Amino acid sequence: MSQTADEQTKALIAFYSRSGVTEALANAVAEGARAAGAEVRLRRAREVVPPEVMAKAKGWREQAEAMNARYEAPTEADAEWADAIVFGTPTRFGSVASELKAYIDGLGGLWAQGKLNGKAGSVFGTTSTPHGGNESTLISLYNPMAHLGLVIVPLGYADPAMYKAGTPYGASAVSFNEAKPPTDDDLEVARFQGRRVAFVARALKAARITETKQGQADQVGQESRS
Ligand SMILES: Cc1cc2nc3c(=O)[nH]c(=O)nc-3n(C[C@H](O)[C@H](O)[C@H](O)COP(=O)(O)O)c2cc1C
């Protein structure tokens, strides 16, 4: 479907990744969103711990620097710009990584102004082990998404890819403690997530544009009658 520049769906994919597994899913979500006609901003949340803490984990600093060269940090302006906001996180003890949570917590100003109300929201994540908390991590992010006023877009079993991988709550991958990349089936689910969230965001945006135009039409009607 052709869209004017003004009407083109805009998707922000804000993720954290330390060893590249969540990054790979983020790129597949982006691919799906672009295939559905969306303009995409891929952003990596930055570290929140001091360099001496990063130095304790082998390769952390080097990998962070490499990824930071590829992706800008997500900003408040990115969230305001987007019609769809998709969060991606590796599991941290069954919940969201503090680096991504710090970005989300920084959206309080937009929340206070109601600026994120009605945008589409979705989430994907990775764990080290198959039952290490993928689903609990994804669902834990539904809480802040609800507070922000996002219209949460789950995956259900709305695509054949869902019968092979992923979760109904969002795309997932298991890295088996060695940064094993997502499987082709994991990536297919992530691409589906990108397409689906772009589709929902476009529908929500079209409804808002129609509503606004209708409001303007009503106003003009009232003015001409008065
Ligand atoms: C502090 C910390 C806590 C973690 N907690 C869990 C966990 O609860 N369950 C799990 O399966 N993996 C856990 N992991 C592993 C990562 O979530 C997993 O390796 C992830 O796939 C890495 O993604 P990335 O390559 O995008 O950084 C933890 C890792 C760290 C550093």
From TrEMBL:
Q: Does the keyword Ion transport apply?
A: no
Determine if rRNA-binding is one of this entry's keywords: no
Specify the domain of life of the species encoding this protein. Bacteria
Q: Pfam families from the entry?
A: FMN_red
InterPro entries in the record? Flavodoxin/NO_synth, Flavoprotein-like_sf, Flavoprotein_WrbA-like, FMN_Rdtase-like_dom
Q: Flavodoxin-like domain location, by residue? A: 11-197
The alphabetical list of record keywords is: Flavoprotein, FMN
Q: Which NCBIfam families match?
A: flav_wrbA, PRK03767.1
- Its family? Belongs to the WrbA family.
Protein name from the UniProt record = NAD(P)H:quinone oxidoreductase
Q: Which organism is it from?
A: Craurococcus roseus
Q: Which gene encodes it?
A: wrbA_2
